[in-house]
Amino acid sequence: MSTSHSKTLKELADLINCNFEGDPSLALSNANSIANSRKDSIVFISEEKYLKSVTESNAGAVVVSPDIAKRISKSKIISKNPYRDFIRLVELFNKDDTIFSIASSARIHPTAKVAENVLIGNHVVIGQGSIIKAGSKVHANSVIGKNVCIDEKVTISSNVTIYSDTQIGAESKILAGSVIGSQGFGYLEDEDGWIEIPHIGKVVIGKQVMIGANCTLDRGTLDDTIIEDGVKLDNLIHIAHNVKIGRNTAIAATSAIAGSTMIGANCKIAGRVSIMGHLSICDEVTITSNTLVTKSIDKKGTYSSGIPATEAGLWRKMISQLKLISRKD
Question: Is residue 10 scored above 90 in pLDDT?
Answer without folding.
Answer: yes
